[in-house]
């Protein structure tokens, strides 16, 4: 497995090629969710490699739960995005509803990625030695995913400036950025 990842072939390459394709799906919401799930995986790895951290077992379990939740959200986002694209092509009466509905998955991604960033920040302070660097990187990746997803919420709700989901997405992205800042300034 290690050599497959190092050579840039196999699943990692297939994933990069799917994202690079001319197809609309997978789109940026899917990529944000998968990126945040990988960040959660790094937190799980940090916890698993930290025998001296009393909270490692709980952090590992929480990171795995967040990872799996984000993978489900990636699929949910892809389906919602496809429905929104179909509604945009048809320009029918359902367009506003499709766009409002399409904001739900990115909002959940933004909030869940923010949770990953917070857990990663804690891990960056508590994990053993070199595992702290993985946790810090995870916080930065999760914060980026949260910010990307928050942007998608704003795009989908552009005609609804009073929608409370806009504020929720912004708050999630801000909290994730603060967690990443904390993690990146933690001592290695």
Characterize the structure shown:
- The protein is an all-alpha fold.
- It has a single domain (27-184), classed as Up-down Bundle (Four Helix Bundle (Hemerythrin (Met), subunit A)), CATH 1.20.120.
- The protein has eight helices and no strands.
- It starts with a helix and ends with a helix.
Structure, briefly:
This protein has 188 residues and is an all-alpha fold. Helices cover 79% and strands 0% of the residues. Helix 7 (131-156) runs antiparallel to helix 8 (164-184).
Molecular shape = globular
How does the major sheet shape up? none
Sketch the topology as an H/E string, one letter per element.
HHHHHHHH
CATH superfamily: Formiminotetrahydrofolate cyclodeaminase monomer, up-and-down helical bundle
The percent of residues in helical segments reads over 70%
Number of helices: 8
- What percentage of the residues does DSSP assign to strands (E)? under 5%
Helix and strand content put the structural class at: mainly alpha
Q: Could you say what the CATH topology is called?
A: Four Helix Bundle (Hemerythrin (Met), subunit A)
């Amino acid at each position: 497995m290690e050599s497959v990842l190092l050579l840039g072939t196999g699943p990692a390459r297939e994933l990069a090629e799917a994202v690079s394709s001319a197809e609309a799906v997978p789109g940026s919401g899917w990529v944000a969710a998968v990126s945040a799930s990988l960040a959660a995986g790094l937190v799980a790895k940090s916890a698993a490699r930290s025998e001296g951290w009393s909270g490692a077992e709980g952090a590992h379990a929480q990171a795995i739960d967040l990872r799996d939740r984000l993978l489900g959200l990636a699929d949910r986002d892809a389906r919602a995005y496809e429905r929104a694209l179909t509604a945009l092509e048809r320009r029918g009466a359902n367009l506003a509803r499709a766009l409002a509905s399409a904001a739900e998955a990115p909002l959940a991604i933004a909030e869940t990625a923010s949770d990953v960033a917070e857990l990663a920040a804690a891990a960056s302070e508590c994990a053993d030695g070199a595992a702290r660097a993985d946790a810090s990187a995870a916080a930065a990746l999760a914060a980026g995913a949260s910010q990307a997803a928050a942007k998608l919420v704003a795009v989908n709700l552009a005609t609804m400036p009073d929608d409370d989901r806009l504020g929720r997405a912004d708050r999630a992205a801000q909290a994730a950025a603060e967690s990443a800042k904390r993690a990146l300034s933690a001592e290695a």
